[in-house]
Specification:
25 helices, three-stranded parallel β-sheet, Rossmann fold, alpha/beta
Length: 683
């Protein structure tokens, strides 16, 4: 284990650490935990690395426990954003924390990277501080913060840290460590991809592309395809692209884009949506340019994203000497997040789906980074031989998406020049590989590893890709479904789906037919469990009513409901805050997006997903009447909710007497039948 105490340092013969990593998670030495990965990568480079996990942030004392690091403090909130970790989508405090021993809540502060960075500075004021992890990554520029309902500054400025790493971070952190060790100051580390830094002076040899105004300025430039490949053309080029055409060819490698300032996006929602669009168009490492955003008198400089790791590099990261267990300091305490993944393997990174409500693409990028079969099979043997309690059951072979392993653009040059926000929406790009042969081969070889009895795929499945390769569905359904398979159509209606960049429900129907056919052929009784989102931007009450009808017609009753949570930097969050659609050109006359903001309406949308819960029936009756669909209130199969109300439900005690039915014209339920149904529901 990397040391967490002075005693462990002394046992290693260390008098100090070169780098100390501070994390909001308990320390689990496993490649699914970010701090373990970064720590092992730095260790492999010859640095002495210590870990301070879930420190008491009330004073600086806990940040001195390993002494003063020679190079820097690395600070992260952990595997999850600290606000998402602690609060529900309704801003209620969660009672537990999966990344804390025994799931205990309250072991990390709100906005952890800010608090930890400030305490590190108090402990040792002259030690550089480097922020990283998903919380820093998604807050690298001015961003809308759902919990305070306002636009906040870049976390780099609020934390007063020296450098911010976004993305997975291995390349960046190694270069930072070596350059600091060679005597460079943090102020000199201005050119590292995948980092952001505050600069006093902007480089004079760069050309500035001003994008501080809304798209829509008259364009006199030639009408050429700005993205060079027709298949990768977006709906409408931004002003930035128009300006880019006018830059001399020999200067195209030395340009930066000036975003609207923090003050501008704080006061103008239209500019906020515009900024969000530009940011997402500049996420391809092959063609992204630096971004500059002024905060007061200071300039925030965001370098282009880091280049993806090659297969060999990714293999090397996963083959470092992890113990694959929690640190012994936790004794017999259970760590829920570890229990979930200890018998699973991560086979790839990244996601080219581009779902607007998801943060994976913003953090890990669109380009899929895949491990080799050999590396994955070797890790299977490590799990079998070294993980306590292993019984032969592998709980997942996956990643951000279960079936994007080795699916990449067919043409490297096209990939470098592409600015599409999704490779699969509104339809799958003709340049995207959809043949799952590599994943099928991996599954078959993994099943043959001695001691492996069963492998289940639990990561989210991109079913619109799967239907392009029925052989994959057959392989999956025959061997790797444990009775139930979870997939996420998210909605049934075209309006919300277009704002999510998700395929239509017809694609789900195609997948279900193949799933059922191959399950029957394998002699197995297996079921799909679809996931849906309530209260997503662009969703009306009528959309939710139609989704509820679809659920009832298909026999689904949702036990858990996922409500849209506006996470920083996501495109859907921009829609939620601005009321504009940044998937297209943003202007004063561009598409409006209705956001579901009021608690009453958000609760109503959740209630439609749980149409079968009697506590929701009074609210749904009221909504259905407003929608002019009182015909859906009744006691027949074609009705969504019944007329009667069980005692003790709906927020107040009521009798089981049917409601008056004059408004529906439906007959009253016979008393005998009514009581029988009431007892049945109660059971």
């Amino acid at each position: 284990m990397l040391p967490m105490s002075q005693e462990e340092m002394e046992a290693l013969g260390w008098d100090s650490c070169d780098i100390i990593l501070v994390t909001g998670d308990a320390y689990v030495d496993h490649p699914s935990f970010g701090m373990a990965v970064i720590g092992r990568v730095l260790e492999a480079q010859g640095f002495r690395v210590g870990i301070i996990a879930q420190p008491d942030w009330q004073s600086a004392d806990a940040f001195k426990k390993l002494g003063k690091p020679k190079l820097f403090f690395g600070v992260t909130a952990g595997n999850m954003d600290s606000m998402v970790n602690r609060y529900t989508a309704d801003r209620k405090v969660r009672k537990d924390d999966a990344y804390t021993p025994n799931g205990e809540g309250g072991k990390r502060p709100d906005r952890s990277v800010l608090v930890y960075a400030q305490r590190c500075k108090q402990a040792y004021s002259n030690v550089p501080i480097v922020l990283g992890g998903i919380e820093a990554s998604l807050r690298r520029i001015a961003h809308y913060d759902y919990w305070s309902d306002k636009v906040r500054r870049s976390v780099l400025l609020d934390s007063k840290a020296d450098l911010l790493v976004f993305g997975n971070g291995e390349r960046q952190i190694v270069e930072i460590a070596h350059r600091l060790a060679q005597g460079e100051s943090p102020e000199e580390l201005i050119d590292i991809r995948g980092t952001a830094i505050v600069r006093k002076h902007l480089p004079e040899d760069y050309l500035e592309m001003d994008s501080t105004h809304v798209d829509g300025v008259p364009d006199t430039a030639p009408k050429v395809d700005p993205y060079q490949q027709e298949a990768c053309k977006t709906e409408s080029p931004s002003n930035v692209v128009r300006l880019f055409r006018q830059i001399p060819k020999d200067k195209k490698g030395q340009t930066y884009i000036r975003l609207p300032s923090y003050e501008q996006v704080s006061n103008d929602k239209l500019l906020y949506a515009h900024t969000s669009r530009i940011l997402h168009l500049e996420t391809n490492p092959g063609n992204a340019r630096p971004l500059v955003q002024k905060h007061g008198e200071r300039e925030l400089w965001v370098n282009p994203p880091s280049f993806p790791l090659s297969t060999e590099e990714l293999d090397a990261v996963f083959e470092l000497p992890y113990t694959r267990q929690p640190h012994p300091v936790y004794g017999q305490a259970k760590l829920p997040a570890y229990e979930m993944i200890r018998f699973s393997l991560n086979i790839m990174r990244g996601c080219f789906g581009g779902c607007t409500f998801c943060s994976i693409t913003e953090h890990e990028g669109r380009i899929i980074q895949s491990r080799s079969e050999k590396s994955i099979l070797n890790e299977l043997e490590q799990v079998r031989d070294k993980t306590p309690g292993f019984t032969g059951f592998i709980s997942d072979l996956g990643g951000p998406t279960a079936n994007m392993y080795r699916l990449n653009c067919k043409d490297e040059e096209t990939e470098k020049n592409c600015r599409r926000l999704s490779c699969v929406y509104p339809k799958i790009c003709k340049n995207m590989e959809t043949n799952h042969r590599h994943l099928i081969s991996l599954y078959r070889k993994a099943r043959r590893v001695p001691g492996i009895k069963k492998i289940v795929i639990a990561s989210g499945l991109r079913y619109d890709l799967a239907v392009e390769d029925p052989e994959y569905i057959k392989e999956l359904v025959t061997h790797h479904v444990g009775g139930y398979l979870k997939i996420a159509p998210e909605h049934t209606e075209a309006g919300p789906l277009s704002k999510m960049m998700k395929p239509g429900i017809g694609t789900y129907d195609r997948f279900k037919k193949l799933f059922d056919r191959y399950s029957e052929a394998a002699g197995k009784e297996q079921y799909l469990i679809p996931y849906f989102i309530a209260a997503h931007p662009g969703t009306s009450d009528e959309d939710m009513m139609n989704l509820a009808l679809w659920l009832k017609q298909n026999g689904f009753r949702a036990d858990q409901v996922q409500t849209f949570l506006p996470s920083p930097m996501a495109m859907a969050t921009s829609m939620y805050h601005s009321g504009k659609n940044p998937l297209h050109k943003v202007s004063a006359h561009s598409e409006e997006v209705v956001a579901v903001k009021g608690q009453k309406q958000r609760t109503l949308h959740k209630a439609y997903l749980r149409y079968h819960d009697a506590n929701n029936w009074p609210m749904l009756r009221e909504s259905l009447k407003k929608l002019g669909r009182a015909d859906l209130i009744g006691n027949g199969k074609r009705h969504l909710i019944p007329l009667w109300q069980p005692e003790g439900t709906g927020g107040k005690p009521t009798s089981a007497t049917p409601f008056k039915t004059q408004h529906t014209g439906l007959p009253k339920v016979p008393k005998k039948g009514k009581k029988r149904v009431t007892r049945q529901r109660a059971r």
